[in-house]
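User: I've been going back and forth on whether these two constructs are worth ordering. Before I decide, could you fold them both?

Assistant: Sure. I'll take them in the order you sent them. The first construct and its structure tokens:
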Amino acid sequence: MSFGFFGIQFGFALQNANTSRIFETLGADTNNLALYWLAAPVTGLLIQPIIGFYSDRTWSNRWGRRRPYFAVGAILASLALCLMPNAAVLWMAVGTLWIMDASINVSMEPFRAFVGDMLPPDQRTRGFAMQSFFIGCGAIIASFLPYIFTNWLGIPNSAPKGVIPDSVKYSFFIGALMLLTTVMWTVFSTKEYPPEAGVQESLRNREKRRIDEEEFWKEKFFKIGILLSALGLLLSIGIYAGSLEKELFVLGIGLLAFGFIHLLAYKYIVQGRSYLGMVSMVKDFNSMPKTMVQLAFVQFFSWFALFAMWIYTTPAITSFIYHTSDKTSAAYNDGADWVGVLFGMYNGVAAVAALFLPALAKRTSRRATHLFALTCGGLGLISFYFVSDPKMLLLSMTGVGIAWASILSIPYAMLSGALPAEKMGYYMGVFNFFIVIPQIICGTILGFLLKNVFAEQSIWILVTGGISMIISGLLCLRVRSSDEVVI
């Protein structure tokens, strides 16, 4: 069931460790890196809830419910991985990132719901931990690939200005093959349970009962739509009037878009078209289980830290430890390769830690386990500031790896017990909002902070990420999971 995640994370690891390097090689300004990375989270924000919603309503006796989405996403993502290192100009690389992330999300979101569909509550912590294990295994190999090609096989690690090194290109080609092969293994080797008649009937009855609630939803959608639209407009005007960083417009536009969606749902209800899928999605979004709302804050701060790390580890290490910003220099490319090693390190630690987290959660609780793991990760990121020897960063990444294993498993185990079975896919997709929103905020404010607060010292972004991760762990203590006693 989870083997496909090996390939999916192969693609994600190559993206996370090398995208900033590719962007900078093609001429990107370091201050704009976070803006260019926005393609990835915006894509996830749009794709995952839609895929989750429709995968809940898909069933084929031959292909099942989730597996068609696994297959289509894998094919498209593999093609994008082949295109990414061959981008000739910056805008092509940014566009390919958008396509690649959208495709990976098409495959990844149903994998989360797959565990919830197929496993009983007492096996879900172990099920999501197994996903973390395969994620760690795939990521450690993918992260090391440029280093392996350079130092073991003698493939060039540097190239003329504006050209991606061959070591990076070959890594992406291998990643495309691995992603396609492993996801297809899951597609052809697993069998899904058909939807239970009672579950489907429950869904139909629930939709019928909601006809009596249309007046309530109309009023609520109208108020929320007006409020969000007004906030988005005022924020955009303030950014323009204050001549603030252009990246901040993303926040204003996001609020406007979300307000517009609520007003559109209001209009459809008025027109008697509340049966439309979009209306159902907006209703369900506004009816999230309490556990999901509590976990939203935990996810926000932990993924803010991760996104800051993925964007700024390369410029932070090359400038703060290797003391260079020359993209064509041997020192810069050595530092960039070492980032791949470090990313491989934390993913390797995550693969091992994932095997032990369920036992720790059983002895303590999921909340305490997540707090411990996130504290390890936060201290690991903060320690970057105090390290001068690159090899010592392996110890820092050990803490990050423990946190990464927990982030990929514990919140989903806590969440799955609180979700209605017939909407597992949709709510898992919506849960991605609380991964994507902090990433979008990273993309809009980190460049501003780097320039105006941190004097263009990228290392301070990593320290900020460490503090954010510790805050996330503390917030986890507030979460109440309905099946906490069952591990």
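The second construct, handled the same way:
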Amino acid sequence: MTSLPGLAACSILASLVLYALTGGADFGGGAWALFNRGPRAEERERLIVQAIGPVWETNHIWVIVAIVVLFTGFPGAYALLSTALFLPVTLVLAGIVLRGAAFAFYSYHLHRERRAAGWETLFAASSLLTPFLLGVILGAVSSGMIRGTGLANLASGTRSWLAAFPLSVGMLTLSSFSYLAAVYLILETDVPELREDFRLRALVSLAVVVLLSAAIPLFSGGGAPDFHRALTGSFWSLPLLGGNALAAIGAGVFLRRRAYRLARVCAAAQVTLLLAGWGLAQYPFLIRPDLTIRAAAASPAMLRLLLAALGAGALLLFPAIFLLLRVFKRKALFGR
């Protein structure tokens, strides 16, 4: 997949991975806020806000990159998705906007509990719904049910995402984001009780991620048969599944031993492998069963300009993000 269309498609997958590892954890923090009850609830609430506050706006750059590459490099696929999956895509965009606005007001009024309550509910609810729908969209793209044009396209799109397989992918996405958030939040505090709270949440969400990861092939067998064959019958299937299992086992062991930095590496690797497996099983299609990466691609001249712009932008973007993390996340990420 070293052709220009292949490189552009890889950049979309890489952006989705980076979005999951950064913005996904922000969504997971909001999901934990929705179920924040019991002792130390207020301390956990403030920790979530403090952890998300410096970086949440920056983390959305990755989903912007993915969308820009999609509509610039693969305009046919963008048109098909925006029509067939109009409702979930619109809800995802609304969820991202509402979550950001709610977080801004919620964090500002956190010291005034009555004024913060409504914003907290909106922030948490949008943090729950948005990653679920993101996963549903990925599942629908792989289902093989998005076909046709016009009203037929819209009808097939509705059937494609209101089905067991995409809904199960949505649940896996939500649980993966919550899992990442719990693991990351452990290192955002030095308070032993708060670390223990999020360690237990990380272990529970890890178990859910493992169960759903095992269930996805079962759902895909009936709901996305072509995707299922690629996922389970390719030369890379066993190595990838084995790597995912090792990452999950490593995360569980390190969480139990309270080796939190190693647990964070394993959690990030686990989520990365899940998305990598989706991308490999999807290849050579952008949208199953009719639209391949090559068929959907823009002209070679456009792809060359797009990839050159991505390369030039990366030279500015990655150092800037590193500096941001160095300033605001130095202790959590670098240990000093």
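Notes on the second construct follow. The chain has one domain: 4-319. The chain has a mean pLDDT of 88.
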